[in-house]
Design a protein that fits this description.
The complex is a heterodimer of chains A (about 190) and B (about 270). Chain A has about 190 residues and is mainly alpha-helical. Chain A has helices spanning about 5-15, 20-25, 30-50, 55-75, 80-105, 125-145, 150-160, 165-170, 175-194. Chain B has helices at about 10-15, 25-35, 35-60, 70-80, 100-125, 130-135, 155-160, 170-180, 220-235, 245-250, 255-260; strands at about 190-195, 210-215. The chains are: A mainly alpha (about 190), B mainly alpha (about 270).
Chain lengths: ~190, ~270
């Protein structure tokens, strides 16, 4: 008998879900957390994968984020800008996990994927490849060479966060965010123009 | 393209795009950009660069993201298992004005009555608080304190038998675990500071993989978990279960994993002598 991770996750969910869950609706707080999970999971996973973490670790971090959110809300803590709060927790957990994995895989810190390598070519058709491959490679090379904080700012912006939220997530000022992004965008536009 | 002082800086353009400039500065930038073709072009260039990067970022990472069905079901199950601290009522929409006087009087009387009852119960329960924790609070770990941690180990390494089920946890680390769980003065005889993912399954010597598990005063105690660890180790080493699944199942909810792998709703007799 070989049990895959996905199968076991679903089987596990069915098993520990007691019978009353089918006859009673889950409490509103659970529904709220699951609703936020549905809306933000993909964005969060993309952001966490950007740290060079394996998919399984990224998925586990996202789970942990929403369990923490449940506790946060259950304790009656602030509901202001929950999206920013969620990304901030994910950011901190991803950093922690990356540090742990880097030291576990390779004491020299070279065991995880590099930032530019986390992007997988989704194999577009040949015409698309011809048209965009070179530009994309140049942009990714520039992105990979950016300082860590600049990469995080860009990635958060790409996930639709406002500059003010990005500053709160990374613990930097609004001015530092705009400075970081303008620096990155200058390099990216130069790369695209070449 | 670098802009001199006569033009709007990239930082200002970015802040203006996001509506983060004060009103007077925003109006100034708007007036300048309307009249300045170079600044308009630069703004479009910036917005274009963000859009291109966003497209690459999303398209190239989306292909790595698995279906949401399994993770969603897992989250729902974990939420159902989370301890309920207390119900926090959602704040009702604000309505101006005070309620009628009779309602205010009734509310004050009710609060006073509840406070009296609560004070009596608190006094009765306070003396036995530690005992009540023993009775079940730590049958499962707090997921935020003890999410589980593993070392990088293959199945063959795990099955070589070099890692015992539970290595001794140093006393200093035990004390840290007790402190994290809010029981700094706990006695080691009352709890086993247990590995959530046992070293025999690749669990790490890490505080995130340790929690104080009650030894004998709960149904789901440390001995029951030991039986589960043996069972999972056996399944992994017989090639009937992959190591990652075993690690995940025991770390997500070891009681549910016990029920699953022993096909029972309660601990077997042999696990609870």
């Amino acid at each position: 008998m070989s049990i895959t991770t996905a199968e076991s996750a679903i089987a596990f969910a069915r098993e520990i879900a007691p019978a009353e869950r089918t006859s009673h609706r889950p409490p509103p707080l659970e529904l709220e957390v699951v609703d936020l999970f549905d809306r933000l999971r993909v964005r969060l996973l993309r952001y966490v994968l950007g740290f060079g973490l394996p998919v399984q670790d990224a998925e586990e971090i996202v789970q942990e984020v929403f369990l923490s959110l449940f506790q946060h809300l259950q304790q009656g803590k602030s509901r202001e800008n929950l999206t920013g709060w969620i990304f901030r927790v994910a950011h901190n957990l991803a950093l922690k996990r990356r540090t742990f994995l880097s030291s576990a895989l390779n004491p020299d810190g070279g065991g995880l994927a590099q930032e530019a390598d986390v992007y997988v070519d989704p194999a577009p058709n040949p015409e698309d490849q011809l048209a965009s491959h070179q530009t994309q490679r140049r942009l990714l090379a520039v992105f990979g060479a950016l300082p860590e904080q600049d990469r995080r700012c860009l990635a958060l912006r790409a996930e639709g966060l406002r500059y003010r939220e990005i500053g709160q997530i990374l613990g930097i000022s609004l001015g530092a965010v705009s400075l970081s992004l303008s620096r990155s965008l200058r390099r990216l536009t130069h790369a695209a123009e070449r | 393209m670098d802009f001199d002082d006569a033009h709007i800086s990239d930082e200002e353009l970015l802040l203006a795009i996001d509506g983060e400039l004060p009103d007077d500065e925003a109006a100034e930038v708007d007036t300048h950009v309307t009249a300045c073709a170079a600044c308009r072009a630069r703004r479009e260039e910036i917005e274009g660069a963000i859009a291109v990067y966003q497209r690459i970022h999303r398209r190239n990472l989306n292909v790595r993201i698995p279906s949401a069905a399994g993770p969603r079901a897992l989250l729902q199950a974990r939420l159902a298992e989370m301890p309920r601290l207390y119900e926090v009522p959602r704040r009702p929409p604000h309505r101006p004005g005070l309620p009628p006087l009779w309602l205010q009087v009734a509310a004050v009387a009710l609060i006073a009555a509840l406070a009296t009852v609560a004070a009596g119960r608190w006094a009765a329960s306070h003396r036995t608080r530690v005992g009540r924790q023993d009775a079940g609070a730590f049958s499962v770990p707090n997921a935020s304190l003890t999410p589980g941690a593993t070392i990088l180990a293959s199945r063959s390494e795990v099955c070589s038998g070099s890692n015992p089920n539970n290595r001794a946890v140093p006393a200093s680390l035990q004390r840290k675990v007790f402190e994290e769980y809010g029981i700094p003065g706990a006695k080691a005889v009352a709890y086993e500071v247990d590995y959530l993912i046992t070293p025999a399954l690749g669990g790490a010597d890490d505080i995130h993989n340790l929690w104080p598990q009650s030894y004998s005063q709960t149904v789901w105690n440390a001995r029951v978990k030991d039986a589960l660890e043996d069972r999972l180790h056996e399944l992994v080493c017989e090639g009937r279960l992959d190591l990652a699944t075993a690690q995940r199942d025991i770390s997500v909810n070891w009681i549910a994993a016990y029920k699953k792998y022993f096909q029972t709703d309660r601990p077997l007799e042999t696990a609870n002598p």
